[in-house]
Design goal:
Iron_ascorbate_oxido_reductase, binds 2-oxoglutaric acid, about 30% helix, eight-stranded mixed β-sheet, binds fe (ii) ion, Jelly Rolls, alpha+beta, five-stranded antiparallel β-sheet
Amino acid sequence: MVRLNPRILLNNSLMSLEYTEIPVVDWTLAERDKVLFLTELRNAMINVGFLYLSNHPIPMDLVDKVIDLTPKFFDLPQEVKNSIDMSKSPHFHGYLRVGGEANDGHPDTREQFNFGGDRTCRFEEGKPEYLKLQGSALWPEDTVLPGYRDTMLDYYQRLEDMSWEFMAYVSEALGLQPHELCSLFDPDRSKLQPRCKVFRYPACPPGPSGRGSGIAAHYDNSLLTYLLQVSDQHVLQVQNHSGDWVSVPPIHGTFVINLGKALEKATRGVLTATIHQVISPPVGARYSIGFFSSLAMHIRIAEVKFDFPQEVWDMKKARDERTGKDSEKEFEFAPKDHQLAAEIVLDEKIRTHPLATLRYYPNLFDQYFPNGLPTHLLAH
Ligand SMILES: O=C(O)CCC(=O)C(=O)O
Ligand SMILES: [Fe+2]
C-alpha cells in the first residue's frame, strides 16, 4: 500500500471537476451486447478507475454465507485470534489486531485476517527468500468456527477465477487480445497466491479533530482489488481527479473494483491507480473483504509493454488534459520497478511486519531493523 503525502491531495483540489459517482458495470451485459459492455468498461477503467460490478458470477448464496461468517470470525475470543497471529506465518498470512501493522504516520483503525488459497511453499535452503511468500494460510480450528475455512476458500477460488475473466475483459476493452493483460498473472496458478484480507473497522465517534481514519488515503499495490462491502456503512470514499471525495456506498450484490499501482505501471499510465480511504464508522463496526489480484512473481514491471491502439492513447490524453496532467509526458518508472515483483512484495511485507520477519527472515531482520524491534512491539 502506498501512503500519500497530504500535500499531494491538496494540490489536486486545484484541478477541474471530474466524476461524482461511481459507474456500475453489469457483467451479464458482456453476453448481451459485448461492444456496449467493452465501451462502458473502457470508460470506467480509463476515466474513473473505480467501479461497481453487478450481476457477477459469484453465487449470491456463497456471498451471503461469507457475509454471515465475517463478524463471527472477529467475535472469536482474542486468544483464538492470537493463536493465528501473522507473526506465526512466514507467508504473512493470519490475524492482525488493531494497530498490528507497523505503518508510520497514519495508524489504521482496523483488525484484519489475511489468507490465500492453499499453495505449496517452494522455498529451500539456498533459494531466494521471496519464495517463502507463498504457502498455506493459518485458519481457526473448524470446531471454533465451523465452515469458515471451506467457505472462505471457496469464495477465494471463485474470485480468483473471476479476476482472470475480468482481466481478459479489461484487455479487450483496451483494444488488446483477451490473453494479453492476463500475461501479468502466472500461467501456472499454483505459483500465484493473491491475498484476501477480511477487515473489521471498529466504531470511532467523531472527535475534536474530525472523524477517525479506518484506513488513510492510499493507492493499492495490486493490479485490481475486488472489494466486498459486508456491512451497510457509508464509509468508503474515492478521490476523483479534482480532489473531491466521492462516496462509494455499499450496493448489495456488487463488488467494488479499484485499480492498483501495478496495473497503472503495466499500462504505462493508460489506467491510473485510484486514491481511496475508509473513514471509521461513527457507530457500529464496519466489515469488508478485499481480494488483491497480483502480478506474477517473475515479472519486472518496467519491462512490460503493451501495444494499445491509438484511440486508447487518445482517451488517456483527453483524461490527462482534463485533469491537468502533462499528457505528452512519458510514464516514469521508479528504480525499484526494475526489480522482480516478488522482491518488491517481500520488501513491503518485511517493512510492515517486523515480528514475522524476526522469526522467519532473521538475516533480513538485521538488515531492515538494525536497532531491533520497534518499541511498540517489544512486549511480544
Ligand atoms: O475496507 C475497505 O473498504 C477498503 C480497504 C482498502 O482500501 C485496502 O485495504 O486497501
Ligand atoms: Fe485500498
